[in-house]
Design goal:
With about 700 residues, the chain is α/β, with parallel strands linked by helices. The protein contains 17 helices and 20 strands. The protein has a domain at about 425-535. It has helices at about 5-15, 75-90, 110-125, 145-155, 170-175, 180-195, 210-220, 240-250, 255-270, 290-295, 330-340, 355-365, 375-380, 385-390, 395-400, 410-415, 425-560; strands spanning about 45-50, 95-105, 135-140, 160-165, 200-205, 230-235, 275, 280-285, 300-305, 310-315, 325-330, 345-350, 580, 600, 625, 630-635, 660-665, 670-675, 680-685, 700.
């Protein structure tokens, strides 16, 4: 972290003003960074990082400099790694390599011969102690026991296994090509070959991962690991497949509070298992700290070799005495061409100012549990002690008082410059005076702070009381408003229910009334029809009897010899007359104005008389066809058939001499059936009503 409170003090250092001086030491004030351990006149040391850029597949979360290619020209890559390692070690005038780390990519895909060749080149260009830490990263999918044995024979003495998770579903989400069982087998094989020096990497904070799942993963890892664990919170890097899925909403982003809980859970679990958290992400027990990682956190020199590797060192071989930040060319093919042409493939280099170096020192050192010591601080700022920067009033001191920054006795003791022999007593007195003044200032500040705290507490209590009173008043108003709302809602519901009930009852009543009315109409129609049919039958029978008697008398009067004896019941024995009512075959009303009729057929046993024998000799002729005695039934003038309706046409009977009987249709009815609200009723309107089916009207005139 960068602390703004110490920037004014460091400004003098950066400018090389009196009282500041450059980090180059007393002999070269303001000349740049101080001599690295091992600069000319000492023994320069550096760690060595070697990057193998190739992988078999792209993991969904990884944004490192890696490449998936069909085939790798390993001999060419090996040669370039060896040449660049020699070049940069000599450029930094490194006399001793403190540690070597093979990272990637997947360096376990390289052959043991490549690893051995790089280590030999480092030993030739600088001293590589026999006990120096040499770590190789390995994926479980390329960490067979035979391959691991080859790496150990090549000079590797520490293994970092990229387990990442012990859950198959999480491994698939991360795009890893191994399974949980393969990871367990790889770690067990590594522990057998590198006992006490096997580390495993785990990731937490995966999309959709729960606190319980992470706790189970930790428990499983504790039963599997050796003495070192590296726990990394997953960072969703832009450009990765996993980040794109989270950004689209296909996967949930883990909440920050959950991530914090996972981290604290891991710290508690590992502390209970005897692990020391010596860095934010690294835990070790039994002294199995990673020397190479500590070289980063302590801001020591390290040289990066391989495509995309980073480094921090002073290129003394080029005449420079200032630390540089270097980045090698990322693309492997371009990098190899540059190495073959210039001996190294450095793409970017930037000299770090004293302020930038101190910022890096603080940012990296505060990641560790040992913090930043005065000894390490003095390498970059020999003229400005650590106590002078963080022990004066300012933002740094405020952070100390708040518990965010610790400046303990060890750091202050190491930060004191040793006085000259003759001034030792004076120095002690000055130190004691400063201590007393500091104690008094702290007491005064403490009293003032206590007063401020008490005032603030009183204010907070008053604010809380006001809030409570306000909350109570709001609750009471809210309860009253809620009661009014509920009452109004109840009233509205009851009104609506009542309206719905009334509407439904009205609809049901109307429907029932309509059904009853229709039923009454149907019943009335059936009764009227039956009554008319019975009446027609009765009238027809009566007309038949009357017509038969009169016709018989007429025929007897016309017959030769005069009237004969009248048989019983008024019927002639030779020629009985029959009359019948002609009823329609169909049903339904007749056309308006059409009358019903009864046709009378006369039958006589006497032979017809001569047509010229007088007025009565012609006999009776009936219209509509010839009868058995020469009579014919036809339409008389003015009494012909009416419109053909369901009741048939009207008929008339007349004699040729004008003496015969005539049947005429009845006049139209003078009543019709109407409709009222209470059902059918007789109406006296003069307009005709169509006949009901089966209705007949009879009129007989002589």
């Amino acid at each position: 972290m960068a602390v703004r409170g110490w920037r004014p003090a460091v400004a003098a250092l950066a400018a090389g003003r009196p009282g500041g001086g450059g980090p180059g030491g007393a002999s070269a004030p303001g000349a740049g960074p101080g001599p690295e351990p091992g600069a000319p006149g000492g023994a320069a040391t550096a760690a060595l990082y070697v990057h193998w850029p190739y992988c078999r597949k792209h993991c969904s979360y990884c944004s490192f400099n890696k490449y998936v290619v069909p085939a790798v020209d390993e001999a060419a890559v090996r040669a370039c790694l060896v040449r660049e390692a020699r070049t940069l070690l000599r450029l930094g005038q490194v006399q001793s390599v403190t540690s070597v780390f093979f990272g990637g990519g997947t360096p376990s895909l390289a052959s043991p011969q490549t690893i051995a060749a790089v280590l030999e080149a480092a030993a030739e260009a600088a001293h590589l102690p026999a006990g120096a830490e040499v770590t190789l990263e390995a994926n479980p999918s390329s960490a067979s026991p035979a391959r691991l044995a080859g790496f150990r024979a090549a000079g590797v003495n520490r293994l970092s296994v990229g387990v990442q998770s012990l859950d198959d579903a999480e491994l698939r989400l991360l795009g890893r090509e191994h399974t949980a069982d393969e990871a367990r087998a790889a770690v067990e094989a590594a522990r057998g070959l590198f006992p006490g020096r096997t580390s495993i990497d785990l990731l937490f904070g995966l999309p959709g991962q729960s606190r319980e799942a992470w706790a189970q993963c930790l428990e499983a890892a504790l039963g599997l690991c050796d003495d070192h664990l590296a726990l990394y919170q997953l960072t969703l890097e832009r450009g990765t497949a996993l980040e794109a899925r989270v950004r689209r909403g296909a996967l949930p982003a883990p909440p920050q509070d959950l991530l914090a809980d996972m981290y604290h859970t891991a710290r508690a679990v590992l502390a209970a298992a005897g692990f020391r958290q010596y860095e934010v992400s690294n835990f070790a027990r039994k002294g199995a700290l990673s020397t190479h990682n500590l070289s980063y956190w302590r801001a020591e020199q390290y040289i990066g070799v391989g495509p995309g590797a980073h480094g921090r060192f002073v290129p003394w071989g080029e005449g420079s005495c200032q630390r540089e930040a270097r980045v090698q060319t990322p693309d492997p093919d371009t990098w190899m061409k540059e190495v073959q042409s210039h001996g190294h493939g450095t793409r970017r280099r930037a000299a770090l100012s004293p302020l930038e170096q101190l910022e890096e020192l603080l940012a990296l050192g505060l990641r560790t549990d040992e913090g930043v010591t005065q000894q390490r601080w003095g390498r970059f700022s020999p003229q400005l002690p650590l106590r002078a920067v963080f022990g004066v009033p300012g933002e740094a001191m405020a952070l100390q008082q708040q518990g965010w920054l610790l400046l303990d006795g060890r750091c202050s003791a190491a930060g004191r410059a040793r006085p000259a022999p003759g001034d030792e007593a004076q120095g002690l007195l000055e130190d004691e005076a400063r201590r007393l003044r500091g104690d008094k200032a702290r007491r005064l500040r403490g009293d003032k702070a206590q007063k401020l705290v008490e005032d603030e507490a009183q204010r907070l209590l008053e604010d809380k009381a006001r809030r409570l009173r306000g909350d109570k008043a709001r609750r009471l108003r809210g309860d009253k408003a809620q009661k009014l709302v509920e009452d109004e809602a109840q009233r509205l519901l009851e009104d609506k229910a009542r309206r719905l009930t009334e509407d439904k009852a009205q609809r049901l009543g109307d429907k029932a009334w309509s059904q009853l009315r229709d039923k009454a109409q149907r019943l009335w129609g059936h009764e009227a029809r039956r009554f008319m049919e019975d009446e027609a039958q009765r009238l027809g029978d009566k007309a038949q009897r009357l017509g038969g008697d009169k016709t018989r008398r007429l025929l007897e009067a016309e017959a030769p010899g005069g009237p004969g004896p009248v048989p019983a019941r008024g019927r002639p024995p030779a020629a009985p007359l029959r009359a019948r009512a002609a009823l329609p075959a169909g049903r339904g009303p007749a056309a308006p104005g059409a009358g019903g009729a009864v046709a009378v057929a006369a039958r006589s046993g006497a032979a017809p008389r001569d047509a010229g024998a007088g007025p009565r000799a012609a006999g009776a002729r009936l219209g509509r066809g010839a009868g058995p005695q020469g009579a014919a039934l036809r339409d008389p003038p003015g009494y012909g058939p009416g419109p053909r309706g369901p009741l048939g046409a009207g008929w008339a009977l007349r004699g040729e001499s004008g003496v015969g009987g005539v049947l005429r249709p009845l006049p139209p009815p003078i009543h019709r059936w109407g409709q009222s609200a209470s059902g059918p009723f007789p109406s006296a309107a003069p307009s005709p009503l169509p006949f009901l089916p089966g209705e007949a009207r009879v009129c007989v005139s002589v």
